[in-house]
Amino acid sequence: MLMQEPVANNSNKIEHDPPSVEVLPKEGLIVNETGEAVLTCSFSANPPNVTEVVWYKDGKPAKMVHPQATPSNNLKGGPPPGVPPFKPSNKLVLDGIMRAEAGSYSCHVRNAFGRGNSTNNITVDVLYPPTVRVGVTPSVAAESTEAVLTCDPVDGNPALLMAVRWHHDGDPIPGGGESTRLTLRNLTRDQSGNYTCRGLNTAGWSRDSDPQYLDIHCEY
């Protein structure tokens, strides 16, 4: 008579896998330059003690955190009784962040059973005030004609200017606003001089542009 072999009971089998990893916040971060950005390499791991957290910026290693304790190889997961599981820092803190640190960030986490890569990348966008350039057209004009001033962003994030301030020989010119263009009509000789501008984006005001000289001649 054939005897049916007993079926092994695997209900108590403990699964050991590499960590499951994602980067938070999923929506990414927008921060002003010199501010702080905090990224979290969130993971679920069994065993819970991990041996390595590595950050990447634009696909290249950004920062590595090594544990100061020997990882446990206990098959039940975790360190010996009475010893709390080791948790290396899973946060990347960019304090006083600079524009060069903007980019796409990801991470990986390793435990005794392998490495888990983050399933997502997040974008860190660093905002900073603009750098502007003033233009004067024409740079030499006759009285009673007109000249056009332009204030153009050459750098900045975001690049869009929300407001512009104009100066003539250091004195404010009425008529600033959202426009990056100012027309001086019916020119007089006392309007000769150096013109500068400043631009505003959501990160703040620019410094004064380098000056451009407008030379106005008598029409006779």
From TrEMBL:
A GO MF term: sialic acid binding
Positions of the UniProt region annotated as Disordered: 1-20
Domain Ig-like: 19-123, 130-198
InterPro entries linked to this entry: Ig-like_dom, Ig-like_dom_sf, Ig-like_fold, Ig_sub, Ig_sub2
SMART domains for this protein: IG (SM00409), IGc2 (SM00408)
Pfam families: Ig_2, Ig_3
Biological processes annotated in GO: negative regulation of B cell receptor signaling pathway
Gene Ontology CC annotations of this record: early endosome; external side of plasma membrane; extracellular exosome; recycling endosome
SUPFAM superfamilies per record: Immunoglobulin (SSF48726)
UniProt name for this protein: Ig-like domain-containing protein
UniProt organism field: Araneus ventricosus
Lineage: Eukaryota, Metazoa, Ecdysozoa, Arthropoda, Chelicerata
